[in-house]
Amino acid sequence: MPTAVAVTGPDLVLPSPDRHTPSAAVLQCAVRSPRAYSLDQALTEMDMLIEHHGYVIVLCPASAPAALTHRLYAVRSVLESDRIAVVRSDLPPLGLAVLALQLRQLSVCDFSPGVLASAARLLSHYIYAGALLGSVAKLDRVPVTLQSHAKSWLPGARFAVLATPRPELVRLSGDGSQAGLSGPGFGTKMLYAPGQLASDWVTGHLAPDWRSQGVEEVRLPAESTRWWATGKLVEFAAAIPDISVLYQLVSSVRRDDCHWCGLELIGDRCAFCAAPLPPPEDRPDRSVRPGRPVRGLLPRGAT
Questions:
Q1: Residue 215 φ then ψ, to 5°
Q2: Of 119, 205, 198, 131, which Cα lies nearest the Cα of 164?
Q3: Strand duo 158-164 + 128-133: pairing
Q4: What is the pLDDT of residues 243-285, one digit of tens each?
Q5: Distance between CA 124 and CA 15 in Å, rounded?
Q6: Which domains does the chain have, with CATH numbers?
Q7: pLDDT tens per residue across span 43-58
Q8: Which of 2, 18, 61, 108 is most exposed, with minimal Cβ within 10 Å?
């Protein structure tokens, strides 16, 4: 079975784009309170995932309450398992759901668990996540100028905000056709989730400006209102939808072996044991070892 990708809420599970992509596991120990779901139940839940999948990658928002992250690490500690990776992400809720989907897509390829888990940081840089907001008065996720804060109180004010990969905030005037956000320089599909604002600007201006290859409406995650500090919003996320492109992106990065737990990794830190990569002079001389796709998932000739 593929490595399990687990999330901390059902709203972070986007529909599978094809029959090959598995769903994500929604951790009940993250959804339900400790009083309603005991530590023993949480241990059983995680143990069953490990037994069935071998390794578990838990995507946890960096904005999650401290009690939630403490519980996840407690479960990992009590099980004394090096097969659980808790990957914390600064992506807003819809962006995190997109990242979970991408990892689910890649889990059916032959990437090792360590490479798949550490790929989360790499893929996050290619997800353009933001929102159309009716107010930024209480927003603390991206820098807000005093002028923008003051204009939030004006009737009908709207702001286009990009949270990742680079924070950006633009106040829209009129129909918003003269304002824009810095978009991706590669092909993406845009997902948007309406809250208490109309989505016309996102679908009619932003998506064409970013040359999105497709636009799809999804349900607004429950956490979005708290994350963006307002219910007057339309959240959006543009990301690479093609599994062959995602595969080649991850495959092109140098792989190393973790000197602590022995798992493969990309980047500078192991996602499972958190051990940093040694300095270049202390690493073995290795060439990139690309994996191979699952038959039928990638077009002929893809590497």
A1: -135, 130
A2: 131
A3: antiparallel
A4: 999 999 999 999 999 988 999 999 999 999 999 988 765 655 5
A5: 19
A6: 4-126 (3.40.50.10170), 128-239 (3.30.1180.10)
A7: 999 999 999 999 999 9
A8: 18
Per-residue HEC secondary structure of the chain comes to CCCEEEECCHHHCCCCCCCCCCCCEECHHHHCCCCCCCHHHHHHHHHHHHHHHCCEEEEEECCCCHHHHHHHHHHHHHHCCCCEEEEEECCCHHHHHHHHHHHHHHCCCCCCHHHHHHHHHHHHCCCEEEEEECCCCCCCCCCCCHHHHHHCCCCCCEEEEEEECCCEEEEECCCCCCCCCCCCCCCCEEEEEECCCCCHHHHHHHHHHCCCCCEEECCCCCCHHHHHCCCCEEEEEEECCCHHHHHHHHHCCCCEECCCCCCEECCCECCCCCCECCCHHHCCCCCCCCCCCCCCCCCCCCC
The closest of 261, 252, 235, 263 to 287, measured between CA atoms, is 252
127-185 per-position pLDDT tens digit: 999 999 998 888 988 866 555 544 544 556 789 999 999 999 988 876 555 567 999 99
